[in-house]
Design brief:
95 residues, two-stranded antiparallel sheet, 4 strands
């Protein structure tokens, strides 16, 4: 599994730290450490299965593909599916 870094533009559930402002959006230096969808696929969760079993919505799956923000509830769900902690899939990177 390759490492793909994506910037979260804002947190939907809570305000953590001081987000950076830019182009009308809040940007936070939180990055994905791994390709989440690839990691889920490695655990047997295809995007079809995630949608069919209502584990993640199509919108969340699309946000992950595009490296966009997902809620902390969804981060929690992904951690449960992968058997990991948020720190295993997310990291703070100073800009």
């Amino acid at each position: 599994m390759g490492i793909a870094y994506s910037t979260f533009r804002s947190w939907r559930a809570g305000n953590f730290g001081s987000p950076k402002k830019g182009k009308g959006r809040n940007q936070m230096p939180i990055k994905y450490k791994v390709d989440i969808l690839e990691a889920l696929k490695g655990k047997g969760y295809s995007t079809y299965k995630l949608r069919r079993e209502k584990l993640l919505s199509e919108g969340v799956i699309q946000s992950l593909r595009e490296g966009k923000t997902i809620s902390l509830d969804n981060v929690s769900q992904i951690c449960a599916l992968l058997g990991c902690q948020p720190g295993d899939i997310l990291e703070y990177v100073e800009e």
